[in-house]
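Help!! Second protein's tokens look totally different from the first
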Amino acid sequence: MDLIVAKFGGTSVGDGARIKKAAQSVVNEYMKGNQIVVVVSAVNKTTDELIGLSTDAIGAGLTDKQKAEIMAMGELTSARLFSATIESLGVKSEFIDPYNKLWPIMTDSNPLEAKIDFKTTNEKAEGIRELLNQGIVPVICGFLGKGPSGEITTLGRGGSDITAFLIGHCLDVSEVIIVTDVEGVMSTDPNKIEEAELLPEITVEELRDLATHGAQVLHPHALTYKDPLISAKIINFEHGNLSAKGTRIVGPFEGDSLKSVTIYKNPISLIAIVGDGMLKRSGLLAKVTSCLADNNINIFGISAGQNSMTVFVEKTESNKAYHLLHHLVIEDEFFSSLSLGEDASMITIVSPNFADETPGIISNITEPLRKNKINIIEISSSQTAIVLYVDIKDGEKALDLLNEVLE
């Protein structure tokens, strides 16, 4: 017997026919002898409509507590509909919302971005296990929590997926299945490139980075809750079959990289190439990277400006890279000159939540370096990482200062 959590997104319960199809897929799995916990989102667009109605009616006077209670109505309704549909197909079911004594997801009192009380949630989840052992299919509201005084709270972005992964962890399930409106994770957006292919599997880290950069499959925050020992997959509701293949999510979430600062063990050298109007010349970047790649020289970073390009390589390969690029400068009319800079330390700051941080995250990181007279040679950033290059003599001091910032 397998224990499964199946989470159904808003589109997969978008109308009566879809709710029945989803419920039938649960019943089919139940009839195989498996135990199933259902986590369900609000019917598609319901939450947005509720927010719109309350904003039009109340405006700025709407409190966060009121907003959470109003937003919750979508999940409260869909859980009742889903549970009733399962029972209409001949299987016992019970909807579980924050008003139910068996409700498992306990949080602090923040109405709209509640923090989960993991210890209490883990204890309360045993009540769900008792239902399962009685042959009942629990249907749990996604996205919602219960605060210390019994008030409804919400888990923020990716809330229903958080619920599914969290319940999966607490009950030590065999598999978490995310049922949504896509086949799984594609090689790229199929709406933009028709040749996009379905990936049979993807790591948590890869999916988190994709989601951080705009892929709409799962919210990156939800992936931090995935238990590395539990299987997970994403499938399309159209199949009406929880055994559909979809895309499997593999590997652990690297908790240590949630927010970390590391310094590369070896010195890094900077090679600057200049030329008039380089940024407007197509193919120059490819020439530089191909030149080094053809000679097995790894590039740790590269930056480009209007009239210059800087390449970062390990010091042990810098002299070879310098001579190779000099030949390229001599041969190409758009390059003028190049120089080999001083040795630098490369420091990488990683966080999956940089995209969600308040404005000023870069200044928060660079300000302590400025105060300690540490010169930043180069800085680059993405939605998940910031890379700094400082003088080699300042590397360890900069590392200590940046660790203090994150703490």
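Here's the second one for comparison:
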Amino acid sequence: MTAFTVWKFDDPGGAEAAAANLKQAASEGLITVVDHAVVSWPEGQANPTTKQAHDSEWRGTGLGAFWGLLLGTLFFVPIIGAAAGAAIGALARHTEAVGIDRKQLETIREQVTAGTSALFAVTQEGDLDRVGERFHGFRGKLIATNLTEAERSTLLETFGP
């Protein structure tokens, strides 16, 4: 089973530390990381910084486009009022086929703010509960979308090589 997850942390460095933790969990066989991205938003900055990992080289370009679309729309498109709803709606049309709905996008946009960070991951064959236990010390919150096999295929076809 493939999952799209977003782990939100209450400080700008939490997601980077969690990403290292996720890589360690992968090396121990607890989870397979298809790809991940880190968003860090220090207090006082107008926008967050993003870092895409490209964990899977053969999928890197396609997933890079996915992360660019997702993170760019959520955090870098100047959105005010009604334009915010329109941008999130347009993004949702692109991501619904892979199990990421408008409500989840709005939640991510509302919760990842200045002074926080987030780890975005596409994983498979993992025990999210056991991986989540490793994040308790980071004061993180998990927002997860478990993707069906059809959604996984759509994700890989849409954003794959």
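Reply: Different proteins will give different token patterns, so don't panic. The first strand starts at residue 2 and ends at 9.
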